[in-house]
Design a protein that fits this description.
31% strand; 20 strands; Lipocalin; alpha+beta; single chain; eight-stranded antiparallel β-barrel; seven-stranded mixed beta sheet
Length: 439
């Protein structure tokens, strides 16, 4: 199933790219016909996306495609995504510029000769479009040297203070130990157990209870259940138009239907569902529906389009074990070195065939964890800087520590972001199958 899912994901994304080109051309709607709008001549020019930032981490713009905005006179212009261009209308006030395409809206903040658009496409990415010929750089870009100097001075001062404290503290070791013990009690503040978080901590984690060996649960933690796989919608009514063992042929047929306007066509592995026959390996459905009536309405359309043998059937239960969890920005996992566990809180989990389709029940927020029993699938693919023999636990720790040490370490930070295909059992990730990026 893995290669088939990967190709479906790539196909869905290729069509989402077309949609993204329209959405990204979005801006605030201009006022009614005939009404004057402000479009300052000083803003006229071509702006290219030069800087990207995600959760405070710089990301190369090349990985998000080539974005450009051209503001022309009288509020006209164009916006292009990887050379796919659309006409736009724009207007501005003292602080923002707004662009409109086909009723979609996007707002950019003006900063000298740059336009800064936050949370691009809901990905959590802030993109800075810089006017051609400008020497603009984001605030703080050149502050590194001064910051290093300040830190060095701070470290020297800290060392001097430490030396003075050690001299002044000679002979008071018992008091220091008492203070440490007191601080430790305050920091843990936990019902006498080193594993339980305080309910009145500054930032309460998503945790109801954590028990340790004293409670007879060595190496196990009980986190608050945000949701479970049972909350996902993992079956649907399909309008089945074709089936067979040649995946590539069905894939091409799906593309032909998509070209006719049926964007929700997909190819499924029949073995992934208990309600589909086993005579063939793959089946093509023109849509996914949560009720039979909507599926039959689509069936009428499909038959009129020439697919006389199409029919409606429910998939039955999803019996495969792979799901997706999605990370759109750097998150800080909880690493429990004592028990060899890594906990991810509040992550979005998806039913694989629903990727790219925002429907009720297609995603659920869950708390997941990895331990040293978690493995990479023998055919695992897409895991940046993974070394032979390295387990997921070690790979995650390695990249997280590298990203924490150097937030600009692109290889490490992007390794932990994207769409991860995994096998999940309860809250435990048993197996990592593949890692995808938003190409």
């Amino acid at each position: 199933m893995n290669n088939m899912i990967l190709k479906d994901l790539q196909r869905v994304r290729s069509h989402l790219t077309v949609i993204a080109a329209t959405v990204m051309l979005a801006c605030l709607m201009l006022t009614g016909c005939g009404e004057k709008v402000r479009a300052d001549d000083t803003l006229v020019g071509n702006y290219a996306a030069k800087y990207g930032e995600m959760s405070g981490i710089s990301v190369p713009m090349d990985d998000f495609g080539k974005f450009e905005i051209e503001l022309k006179e009288k509020g006209k212009g164009s916006m292009s995504v990887d050379n796919e261009s659309e006409s736009i209308k724009w207007q501005n006030d003292d602080n923002t510029v707004t662009i409109k395409v086909e009723g979609e809206e996007l707002t950019g903040r003006l900063d000298k000769e740059a336009i800064i658009i936050e949370d691009m496409l809901g990905m959590g990415v802030t993109m800075t479009f810089v006017k051609d010929g400008s020497t603009y750089e984001p605030a703080g870009k050149d502050d590194g040297e001064d910051k290093d100097t300040e830190e060095e001075g701070s470290e020297e001062a800290s060392a001097d203070d430490k030396s003075e404290d050690e001299s002044a503290g000679e002979g008071s070791g018992e008091d220091a130990d008492d203070d440490k013990a007191s601080d430790k009690d305050k920091a843990s503040d936990k019902d006498g157990s080193s594993g339980d978080y305080s309910a009145d901590s500054a930032e309460e984690p998503n945790v109801s209870d954590i028990d340790d060996a004293e409670d007879g649960m060595t190496g196990e933690k009980e986190y608050e259940e945000l949701g479970s796989l049972d909350d996902l919608v993992t079956s649907f009514y399909g309008v089945w138009v074709s089936a067979g063992n040649d995946y590539e042929a069905l894939y091409s047929e799906a593309d032909a239907l998509i070209a006719k306007g049926y964007k929700d066509c997909l190819v499924v592995a029949t073995s992934d569902f208990d309600g589909l026959g086993r005579n063939v390996s793959y089946a093509l459905s023109c849509g996914m529906f949560d009720n039979e009536k909507d599926a039959k309405d689509r069936l009428d359309e499909i038959k009129k389009a020439g697919y006389k043998d199409a029919y409606v059937k429910h998939t039955g239960s999803y019996v495969a074990d792979s799901f997706y969890y999605v990370v759109t920005s750097m998150i800080e996992p909880e690493i429990d070195e004592d028990n060899g566990e890594i906990w991810f809180k509040n992550v979005e989990v998806q039913f694989p065939y629903m990727t790219g389709y925002e429907t009720e029940g297609s995603t659920v927020k869950m708390t997941l964890y990895v331990d040293k029993d978690t493995v990479f699938d023998p055919g695992a693919q897409g895991f940046t800087n993974h070394k032979n023999g390295e387990k997921p636990y070690d790979w995650i720790v390695k990249n997280y520590e590298a990203a924490k040490k150097d937030p600009d370490d692109y290889e490490a930070t992007t390794a932990l972001m994207g769409v991860f295909e995994v096998s999940i059992n309860g809250n435990h990730i048993d197996r990592y199958i593949a890692s995808y990026w938003w190409d």
